[in-house]
Amino acid sequence: MDFDETFDLVIIGSGCASVTAALAAKSLGARPVIIEKQALFGGSTAYSGGIAWLPNNPLLDDDNPADARAYLDHVVGPPDKASPVAKREAFLKQGPRAVQFLLDQGVKLIRVPWPDYYSDAPGGHRIGRTVSAALFDLRELGEWQDRVGYFYGFPRLPVGSWEFVDLTLAKTTWKGKMAGLRLALKMLKDKLTGSRTVGSGNAVQGRFLKAALDAGIPLYMETELTGLEVEDGRVVGARVRDGKGERRIGATRGVLLNAGGFSRNLEMRRKFQPQPTSTDWTMANPGDTGDAMQMALALGADSDCMEEAWWTPGSLLPDGKYGGFHVPGESGKPHVIIVGPDGRRVGNEAGAYMEFGQRMYARGAVPSWAIIESRMLKDYSWGPLLPGKPIRPWIDNGYLVKADTIAGLAQACGIDAAGLAAEVARFNGFAERGVDEDFGRGASYHNRAMGDPGNKPNPSLGKIERAPFYAVKIWPLDVGTSGGLVTDEHARVLRTDGTPIAGLYAAGNITAPVVGHTYPGAGASIGGGIAFGYVAARHALGAN
């Protein structure tokens, strides 16, 4: 088959798995290429909090394989197509190796304190198994410094996403005040020196892009995948199109799909996702349209978990723009609950966000309502509202609904008044005793970390009793779909009969994840991408 050019490994998409795979291939003497259809580099990783959940990695000195395995098995549940035993074992074994490999490549990764989301489960970790990139000065990228993708809802500030939990407590705790002071000093330093220091997903993809550029890996931007080339049942290349037209690129060892899910594809969302649904509710990158996934499915690839997304329940501003991810960093604070139209709580507001989104759909609570007491807005942040700042503009523009009574709030929001009154009374009893008998809010270490340590007897529970009362509409926002192509422990794409499609690999949100229908800890999606990007490259080149 004739090609316009040929590489050993052709990588579609520029998320975290892509650079990991490209660097791994390069280290083995191969010629990789990264092909990205957008003008900006980084995929949804660049839009994200930029953290990766990778158990027992070299940056941890307090984890071990047995605990990691026990936790993963407990949270994810019995093995299935998305998460068979061999794939879990590969994740637990190769994830740490991938982290060490990236460190050896000069990518500055750090451990960040973010407890496992089910921290009190067997094998759960109270400090957490999450890593991120150290803060990064975009100026190090030279002419590429304006080509890293970013999410408009996350300010490009010199702060890591894990630090926002402390910042929500800036008014009530010394730890929060110190976090605010550190941020202010970093911003002042940037202003004085002209630095462009960023954290979160920008820091991760900034550092990954720098590593790729330093390694001389070809990056084809604004180049769209239009088809996969197949010969004798093997994927041997890709058809792509850029501003100069269409061309064919050969892949001697394999094609790796890391092109994201289908968050921006309304037709696919309506076909596979729970209803109601909308592309207005996703905060994934604009290129997350499912094209590459559909091409693989057309070749007979199997799929799983297509109904799932990385749900991050939050609010939208009156103009439809992002208003905030509230579960659990803000809804886990005292004096707030989230209820469905029947007035009853949806779930544990201080727990895992993906589970909360699933509960919203299971309860028929789309949208839900955050019921917020006056003290919450006085002491803590809520999306665009900073503690103690004027509230009136947010009432006037319709973002906040205000009432002097719970009954009045229910009427204004269309919530069942009797149900809400009963729920508030029940929750207030839990807050007084410090025990949530319905959902266990504030019982785990992770839950308590989302609350206010100065609030007694439970950092996460506070009564809803002091007028005025407020409500905000909560939607099942997401940062990407989390179902897709079924892959094995080598990251090979599998057919419906369980056999691999020769030459075709996949990693990241285009796949059915190793964590299945769950989200065990902060950065589980990115962690899986890094691990299986590394695995794919090594297997394609015969190194596994």
Give me some keywords for this one:
single chain, 544 residues, Flavocytochrome C3, Chain A, domain 1, 8-stranded mixed β-sheet, 4-stranded antiparallel β-sheet, 23 strands, globular
Model description:
The structure is a single chain. The chain is of the alpha+beta class. Among the domains are: 157-195, no CATH class; 313-476, Flavocytochrome C3, Chain A, domain 1 (Alpha-Beta Complex). 31% of the residues lie in helices and 19% in strands. Strands 1, 2, 8, 9, 10, 11, 22 and 23 form an eight-stranded mixed sheet that branches. Strand 10 (234-242) and strand 11 (245-257) form a beta hairpin. The radius of gyration is 23 Å and the shape is globular. The model has no long low-confidence stretch (mean pLDDT 97).
Structural class: alpha+beta
Q: Say how many strands there are.
A: 23
**% residues in beta strands:** 15-25%
CATH class of the domain at 313-476: Alpha Beta
Sequence stretches where pLDDT stays below 50 over 5 or more residues? none
Number of helices: 16
Distance between the termini: 28 Å
Determine the mean pLDDT: 97
Shape: globular
What is the strand and helix layout of this fold?
Blueprint: E1 5-12, H1 16-27, E2 32-35, H2 43-47, E3 51-53, H3 65-76, H4 85-104, E4 109-112, E5 130-133, E6 136-137, H5 164-167, H6 174-193, E7 197-198, H7 200-214, E8 219-220, E9 224-231, E10 234-242, E11 245-257, H8 266-272, H9 291-298, E12 303-304, E13 309-311, E14 314-316, E15 322-325, E16 336-339, H10 353-362, E17 368-373, H11 374-379, H12 392-396, E18 401-403, H13 406-413, H14 417-433, H15 445-449, E19 469-474, E20 478-481, E21 484-485, E22 492-494, E23 500-506, H16 524-540
Parallel strand pairs: 1-2, 1-11, 2-8, 11-23
Antiparallel strand pairs: 3-5, 4-5, 6-7, 9-10, 10-11, 12-21, 13-20, 14-15, 16-17, 17-19, 18-19, 22-23
